[in-house]
Write a structure and sequence with these properties.
heterodimer; A: mainly alpha; Sodium/glucose cotransporter; globular
Amino acid sequence: MRTLDWLVVVVYVVWIVYDGLRRSKGTDKVEGYFLANRSLPWWAVGLSVMATQMSAVTMVGTTGQAYATGLRFVQLYFGLPLAMIILSLTVVPFFHRAKVYTAYEYLERRFDVRTRSLASFLFLMGRAFSLGVTLAAPAVVMSTILDWQLPVTVLAICVPMIIYTTIGGVQAVAWTDVKQMFIVVGGMTAAVSILIYGITREVSFSHALELAGATGRLKAIDFKFDVRETYTFWSGMLGGLFLMLSYFGCDQSQVQRYLTAKSIDEARHSLLMSAYVKIPLQLLILTSGVLVFVFYLFQTPPMLFNRTYDAQVAASPRAAEYARLEQDFGAAIAARRDAAARDNRDAFLASDARVKDIRAEAAAIVKQATGDERYNDVNYVFPTFITTRMPVGLVGLMIAAIFAAAMSASGGELNALATATIIDFYRRHFVTTASDRHYLTASKLATISWGLFACVVAMFAANQGSLIEVVNRYGSLYYGSLLGVFILAILTKRATARGAFWGMIAGMTVVLTVAFSPWTSSIAFLWHNLIGAVVVVVVGMAISYTQQPDRIVAASGQPG
Amino acid sequence: MNTLRDARGIDDTPMTKTYTGVLVLEAIILVVLWLFGRAFS
C-alpha cells in the first residue's frame, strides 16, 4: 500500500460517513428512520437490495472459490430470477398493503404473536451471526495487508459503518449502498481488465481460456443430480430457489429494503433489477477468480496465499520439510508454466495436479505446526493479487471497494436487526405505549448494540473455511422454516396459528437434525432450505386440519 | 367500466412482459454458459 492508495481509502471512508450523516435529515421519526417514509425510487432500492446481498464476502470468498474450483458457484443463483418473480407476485403486494415495518409483523396479523416472535427471533439470531461473518471478510483482508491485529481491523471497518447507520437510519444505508455498488462494480471491472491485460502479455486470450477450461474451471453447469454436491444445476434451481425465496421474502434485511419503495410497482422493479443483473454480476466476480488462476500460471504465485503463520512454521520442527516443499513447489510451477506455454495438455494437467498436492501438503504442515485446524487459504487469493499485482491507486480503489461491500451489506443488516428488535420485541412486548421519540432513541441504541455484538462475532469468524459458504450455511439452517411459515400465511387460508407455530418448530428441528446427524450431514446445505419449507408446510397443515379454522381477521394484506 | 388496473390500484400493475423478459434472459445465460463450458473443457 502506497501513499496514494491510502489516500483513496481514507477519502472514500470519510466521504461515506459524511454523506451518511447528511442523509439523516427526515429520520427524526421511527417511520423515517426504518422505512425512509416509504419514499425511495425503485433504482435506489434495487441497488440497495443488491448491495445488501453482495458483501465483501462475495468479493473475497467468491473470487477465492473461483480460483480453486471455477465458475460452478454461479449455479447457486440459478433460482434467483424465478424467486424474484414469485416474490413480486406474492409477498411484495402483501407487505406493502399491510403497511408493516417488519415481515414478521404480518405473521401476527395472520396467525398470532408467538408465531411472529419466533420468526423474528430466528431472524435475529441467524442474521446477527451472519453479520459477524460478513464483517470478518474485509477484516481478514486488511489484517493480512496491514499486518494489524484482527480486533483492530474489525473496529476500523465497523466504527464508520455503525456511525452512519445509527445516525442516518435506512436512508443513509440505502443511499450509501447506491454509491458503494458503483465502487464495487468499478473495482471489479478494473481488476478483470488488469488481469486480462496481464494474461494477454503472455498468451492469447483464447489460449488462456483453453487452459482454464482444461482444469474444469469454465464448466459452470453440472446437471448431475446428487444431494451431496453443493453446487449443481438442480441444487441451484431447487435449493437455490428456496434459499432466495426465503432470503428475499422472509429475511428482514431484504424485506426492509423494498418496504422503503414508493409503491408496489417500484418495489417490484427493485427486486426485478436483481433478477436481471445478479447472475451476470456474479459471473463478473467469478471470472476474476478464474483469471487470477490463469494469471498465476505465468507468474510465480506464493505456495500459500495466507502468510499469517510464516514465522511460526519457520520456528517449528517441520520448518525443514516446509522449506523442501517450497523448492518442490517452485519446480512444479516452472513445469506447469512450461507445459502451459507449449500447449501440452497432459503435462499441464499433471503439473497442475502436482501444484495442488504440494499446496495441500503445505496447508497440512501449517495446521499441524500452528494447531489452527481451520486454517484456510482460499480467502487470501484475491487480496494477495490486489496488493502485489495491481498498480498504485487501483490498489486503494480495490481496498475501498472491499470496504464498500462490507459496509453496504452490514449497514442494511444492522438496520434490519434494530428494526426487528424494536418493532417485534421492545415495542410489542416491553414498552408498548411510549412516544415516537422514545422509540427512535431505543432504535439507535439497538443499532449500536447489534453493531458491537457483530464486531465480537467477526473476531471469531475469520477462519471458518470459505466465508461465502459459512454465511449461506448459517442462513440455510433457519431460512427454509421461515419460508414455510410465510407460505402458510400467504398461500393458504386453512392454516391455523397453532399449525404455523408448531410447523415452524418441526421445520427447525428437522433441518438441525439433517444438518448435524452423522447419517444425513452429507446432504448439501442448499437442500436444507427446501427440506425446512416442506416440513413446515406439511406439519403446519396437518395440525391445522385437526383444528377448527381460525377466525380470519379482515386486514389489508390478508389473503382473501 | 372497471379495468384490472383500477381493481388492483394504480401502483399495482401487471408486469407479465417484464417477468417473461427475466425468464428469457436467464434461459439465454444458461444456454451460453453450457455451450461455453463444453467448448472449453
